From TrEMBL:
GO terms for molecular function: fatty acyl-CoA hydrolase activity. The keyword Hydrolase applies. Belongs to the 4-hydroxybenzoyl-CoA thioesterase family. Keywords: Hydrolase. The keyword Protein biosynthesis does not apply. PROSITE patterns: 4HBCOA_THIOESTERASE. This is Uncharacterized protein.
Amino acid sequence: MYSVEKDIQVRYAETDQMGVVYHANYLIWFELGRTQLIESIGFTYASMEEEGFLSPVIDIQATYKKPVRYGEKPRVRTWLEKYDGLRVTYFYEILNEHDELCVSGYSVHIAVLKDSFRPVSIKKHLPKWHREYEKIKRN
């Protein structure tokens, strides 16, 4: 299975009054992992936008298993779980320094026209992305 990992440095501002990472910040870490994966296959969101497309999130989910605290050095592991030519589903695991699973989740994305937000087929409109997604998808 093709995956990438990105180290995260927990900033104090990312923690809440309980001293743990505030739950919404994990979604930002998911984005860091997703961006790392996309760059690892030779693309950027900026290049997609230059071509006139965007890739909005249409579904996102996170399951919290163990808190991450300031001073810890977690990492996010990301892979492309599903791809059908229209929808892309990325899966994420945030692991602590002891390889314990802290958060797992996924996000589902589509491609849309930048000007109208009209959904389009990745297979048809972004064929280079399609070819790479087909190579690395798990399912």
